[in-house]
Amino acid sequence: MRKTFKSILLFAGLLTCTCACQSNKQEPLSDVINRSLDVATQQSILMAKALEDQEGRLPTTTNKDGKLKTSNYSWWCSGFFPGELWYLYENNPTAELKKYAEMYTSRVEPAKNVTNNHDVGFMLYCSFGNGFRLTKNPHYLDVMTTGAKSLATRYRPEIGLIRSWDFNKDKWQYPVIIDNMMNLEFLSFIAKETGDSFYSDMINSHAKKTMEHHFRPDYSSYHVISYDTITGLPHAKNTHQGYADESAWARGQAWAVYGYTMMARETGDNAYLEHAKKVAEFIMNHPNMPEDKVPYWDFNAPDIPNTVRDASSAAIIASALIELSQLDKTAQSKQYLNYAIDQIRSLASPVYLAEPGTNNNFVLMHSTGHLPGNSEVDVPLSYADYYFVEALLRLKKLI
Ligand code: GLY
Fold it and tell me: Residue ranges of the alpha helices (H) in 153-269?
């Protein structure tokens, strides 16, 4: 009897321990990655099928009425969905993923002739760039070579920067936004493909001048710097999508850490690496970063914590920090990787990761595009999904 009672106690104890241990145990990282890639694959195929018959259309976000919003090639986000399909095809090379990656990439081709803004790098390199990396299709290289010539028309050597926008001409003589750092990856690829130093000089000039003028002493970034076309020096420091001119718009900080990490990889220049690390530290140590490490839309939004998040900036930062952790050879590298893993775990939780078949077939929820313009607030965005999938693949390759 005593023995039976002791056995029951032991069994009950073990059961309690097993339950408690299981609830405290984190999901293995490889499971987080594979589960998220599986959701992304399901959602992207549903999205690809939904738009298959809508010639030229590409997914962007969700409208205020809850319906899917699409664009043609000319919106800055046109390359992200095809790029995401290429990443998913890289992870799981099925004929279906390749068919859709090719179909949606071809819809972006007219962007090669865009000369009225700087977004050609986003549009072409995410789509055609990933497609070329994986297939070596020579037509993709032709499209990108034409696109690089179009983008280069926006560079004025006497200013040493690529002009971002042409609007607001009364306010800005020569506006350059921090986002523009991202277009340099495309031009760096073209510089290497063509061996034309015009492109490598251009990207180094742009990155160095941006490093000099776009950052505050704490290494946070302004959104828009407009340059005086005579002196080549800043005449205005503003925001467009952030809370205030002097605030730290979350996605702007994400573009900054990604942009300088990418430049460190592309050029091997230590100045870019050191700069990326400073920006990373600004982001990682910010007192307004929430516990789950998915930023509010602006680090200085006045209504924190009662304001919306921007999952896209978390995805971009995570992808950048994974790469930074590989380029940096100091003890800090582990911190960058651990921070990115925390962000990935948050984005892979039900708070942000959609159930397949919901969220208009986007992968992530809770991003913010342009809050001051009352546009794309707390919605899915195609680039949140693109950088999330990129980060998942970068992490998968590491573990
Ligand atoms: N490049 C535009 C944005 O980040 O919203």
Answer: 184-194, 197-213, 250-267
